[in-house]
Each structure stands twice: as C-alpha cells, then as structure tokens.
Amino acid sequence: MNAPLILPTPGIQPEIAVAAMPDDERVWVPQAKDVWFRPLLLNTVTGGWCNLLRVRRSGILQRHRHPMVVVGYVIRGRWKYLEHPWTAEEGSFVYEPPGEVHTLTVPDDCGEMITFFNIQGAMVYVDEDGRQVGYEDVWSKIEMCRAHYAAVGLGAAYVDQFVR
Ligand code: FE
Q: Is 51 part of any domain?
C-alpha cells in the first residue's frame, strides 16, 4: 500500500500561470531586427525554455542547429524555414528533431507571426557552411531578459517569475 502523500509536497517548485500575451509590449525581448521572444518558462533544471516567438515581415531568425528536440504551435500568422518546402500555418503543430538546421522567415504576405516554442537544450547559430557563430541556452536567455527588463523599467528581477 502506498504511503499517503504529504500535501503540499515539501520543496516542490511553484507553478506558473500567466497571460501569455499581455498588453504590455515590454514583455517582448528584442532578439534581432523584427524578431522578439516573450519568455514563459526558463527551466534551469532540464536546460530549456518555453517562449513565444514573434517575427514581423522581413524578420529572419538566423540559421541555427538544435541539438535537442523542439515543438511548437503557431498562434498567429504563418512562417517557413528556408531549408524546407512546407509553411507552418496558424494552428499548425511543428516538431523539430535533434540535429535539425534551419532559418526561419515570414512570407511577404504575412505581417506578423507569433508561435509558441518549447526548446530543449540550446540553439547553436551557424553560418552557410555549418560553422558555429553563436549560442543560446537557458542561461543566456535569462541574461537577455534581465538586461531588457532592466532597460525598459520592469526591473531585471521581472524575469524571475519565469525561472525554475
Ligand atoms: Fe529552430
């Protein structure tokens, strides 16, 4: 017979329940020209993060490799990878296997896309020849958020509510 659970379980991490897309534009952290991310979970235990990615027309998310799995759901707009024939439409689910290399763009007929991504591990930015030119992980994302939230007046600690 199982021992009764101690409730609440000591040491358990607090849950997160937030408006994913609040009116406050300052939650969006600039990443590149016409590219922003909005953190939802920055997981320092498993090494990964959940965020909304927003890309406006002419925005490009630089070519990168995923060493671990990524899944996503398109909330608004549409986008494609230069390396693949398909387009992710509003309402699409996307799975990206470990080892996948791609460059994200928004088609000319779309003003803005917003997609929820759950990213494990890291993003390794690469050049045309596959050579590494940049790197992001949960720690670099946290630092980007701290710097941005401090700069826009929310305070660096604003990011703490998303860190586990
Ligand atoms: Fe990607």
A: yes
* Number of domains within the chain: 1
Per-residue exposure over 69-80, b if at least 16 CB sit within 10 Å of its own CB, e if not: bbebebbebbbb
Distance 36 CA to ligand 1 centre (A): 14
Nearest-angstrom CA–CA distance, 94 and 113:
14
pLDDT digits (tens, 9 = 90+) for 42-69: 999 999 999 999 999 988 999 999 999 9
Q: How far is the CA of 84 from the centre of ligand 1 (A)?
A: 12
Running DSSP on this structure, what letter comes out for residue 155?
-
Q: What residues make up the domain containing 112?
A: 26-162
CATH code (residue 71): 2.60.120.10
pTM score: 0.94
